[in-house]
Amino acid sequence: MNNAYIYILASRPRGALYVGITNNLVRRVWEHKSGFGSSYVRRYYIYRLVWFEQHDLITMAIQREKSIKRWRRAQKFSVDEACNPDWRDLYPEISAS
Predict the structure, then answer these.
(1) What is the dihedral of CA 79, 40, 54, 63, to 10 degrees?
(2) What angle do CA 68, 91, 72 make, to 5 degrees?
(3) Which residues, including other chains, have CB under 8 Å from residue 4's CB and lie 6 or more apart?
(4) Taking the model in full, what pTM does it have?
(5) Where are the domains of the chain?
(6) Is the CATH code 3.40.1440 the one for domain 4-96?
(7) What is the pLDDT confidence band of residue 2, given thresholds at 50, 70 and 90?
(8) What is the distance between the alpha carbons of residues 30 and 11, in angstroms, rounded to a whole number?
């Protein structure tokens, strides 16, 4: 069983978004926050982890990530707001565990 995570970072509530996939969510978000993420994330200050989803199979996670990337912004906002209505950064919670 290989864990894979799909995640959404936001610059601010309803701001710029970044959708990514990783096998180590804590490490990858830390990389983004430390400036080692994508240039798009650095350019638009997209450092707030607002949503993530865990999958047991990387193949399923890749399919889901591709699907989410095709969604309109409003759909992504809906998912974020349903799980995290305040758009708070979830990183402190996941990094503490």
Answers:
(1) 90
(2) 20
(3) 21, 22, 23, 54, 55, 56, 57, 58, 60, 61, 62
(4) 0.94
(5) 4-96
(6) yes
(7) confident
(8) 15
pLDDT of residue 1: 53
Asked if 4 contacts 54 with a C-beta cutoff of 8 angstroms, the reply is yes
Each residue's pLDDT tens digit, 17-46: 999 999 999 999 999 999 987 899 999 999
Concatenated DSSP letters of the chain:
---EEEEEEESSTTS-EEEEEES-HHHHHHHHHTT-S-HHHHHHT--EEEEEEEESSHHHHHHHHHHHHHS-HHHHHHHHHHH-TT----HHHHHH-
Residues 28, 54: Cα–Cα separation, whole Å: 14
Distance (Å, whole) CA 36 – CA 34: 6
Tokens of 63: 């399919």
